[in-house]
Design goal:
This protein has helices at residues 2-38, 42-65, 70-96, 100-146, 151-163. The chain is mainly alpha-helical.
């Protein structure tokens, strides 16, 4: 029994190292995007965050296809927030570029993706996914309160929240 536990710990440790390696290109793009954003070089930040989102989404999608052992669950726990962070940073950059329509679409898209992940993997991933679904919902609510003068965007947010209804409310 002891050997089996040691093997499992080694498997987990090697999985964590591999995950760190897999996420390092994403992290580099996020850091580069953050630097560009801080320097108000918003087009570069947008491009870096878009690449980061593509990388993180690809990583998450790959892990979602795997059998859910402890290493894969740990990878999902790390890659899911990477997707959310990338999407939210990209939305913030669209706001900085005075493109609230694109920001709204980005926030809705990530919310719908997280909700779809919840529907598909509810039994295995519910606590992890629900946490991030709540975050994406809060970002939508925050966006709606920031842009009440754009009723067409509020309407789109309401539609997305109704589609993803768990216990949502309609915004006015």
């Amino acid at each position: 029994m002891k050997n089996r536990m040691d093997l499992s710990a080694n498997h987990l440790a090697s999985g964590v190292c591999a995950l760190s390696s897999v996420l390092s290109p994403w992290q580099a793009k996020i850091l580069s995007g953050n630097q560009a954003y801080q320097a108000q070089i918003f087009l570069r930040a947008r491009d870096e965050y878009q690449v980061a989102l593509t990388l993180a989404t690809g990583i998450l999608d790959e892990f979602l296809l795997c059998q859910k052992d402890s290493v894969v669950m740990n990878a999902i726990e790390h890659s899911l927030p990477a997707v959310v962070v990338s999407a939210h940073n990209l939305a913030d950059t669209f706001i900085a570029l005075d493109q609230p329509n694109r920001a709204c679409q980005q926030l809705i898209a990530i919310h719908l993706k997280i909700h779809a992940t919840y529907l598909e993997y509810n039994n295995e991933l519910a606590p992890i996914v629900l946490h991030h679904l709540h975050k994406t919902r809060q970002e939508l609510i925050h966006f709606a309160t920031r842009y009440p003068h754009l009723p067409e965007l509020i309407h789109q947010i309401n539609e997305a929240m109704q589609v993803t209804h768990l216990h949502s409310r309609v915004l006015h």
